[in-house]
Write a structure and sequence with these properties.
The chain has 2 helices and 7 strands, in the order H-H-E-E-E-E-E-E-E. By secondary structure, the protein is an alpha+beta fold. About 15% of the residues lie in helices and about 35% in strands. Strand 1 and strand 2 form a beta hairpin. The protein folds into 2 domains: about 30 residues, no CATH class; about 100 residues, Immunoglobulin-like (Sandwich), CATH 2.60.40. This is Heat-shock protein IbpA.
């Protein structure tokens, strides 16, 4: 697997160190196992849905946290049943704990989370504040007088 040296970015881009950190974090996430499988869906222009296959997990086994621009979904089975007594002919449903992280863009907020039929749905929306939206400036207008 290729590794990327980001030290030139840290040296020459002042104030953009968070961008290099995001690239570094994304490359670390690529090394992460592909469990549990997930989809990222675009529902509308600024609405998204993450759907994760979490078969075997109950609602109280899963925690969802947002800190800064990172969404972390963690699944932990508290009391594992005695699986040594079970005899499987085929075991395809994984019951291992997981932690999956997603980097969120600026102004992306988590709206809801719901579980149905072994699928965890997390709805997100990008809400751009009015101050950040583009605005048209009329030629000949004095912006200082309007305040």
């Amino acid at each position: 697997m290729r590794t990327i040296d980001l030290s030139p970015l840290y040296r020459s881009f002042i104030g953009f160190d968070h961008l290099a950190s995001m690239i570094d974090a994304a490359s670390q996430n690529e090394k992460q196992a592909s469990y549990p499988p997930y989809n990222i869906e675009l529902l509308a222009e600024d609405k998204y849905r993450i759907t994760m296959a979490v078969a075997g997990f109950a609602q109280n086994d899963i925690s969802i946290e947002v800190q800064e621009n990172t969404l972390t979904v963690t699944g932990k089975k508290e009391g594992k049943e005695n699986t040594s007594e079970k005899r499987f002919l085929h075991k395809g449903i994984s019951e291992r704990n997981f932690e999956r992280k997603f980097q969120l863009g600026d102004h992306v907020k988590v709206l809801t989370a719901d579980m149905e039929h072994g699928l965890l749905h997390i709805d997100l929306e990008r809400v751009i504040p009015e101050a950040k939206k583009p605005r048209k400036i009329e030629i000949g207008s004095n912006l200082l007088e309007s305040k």
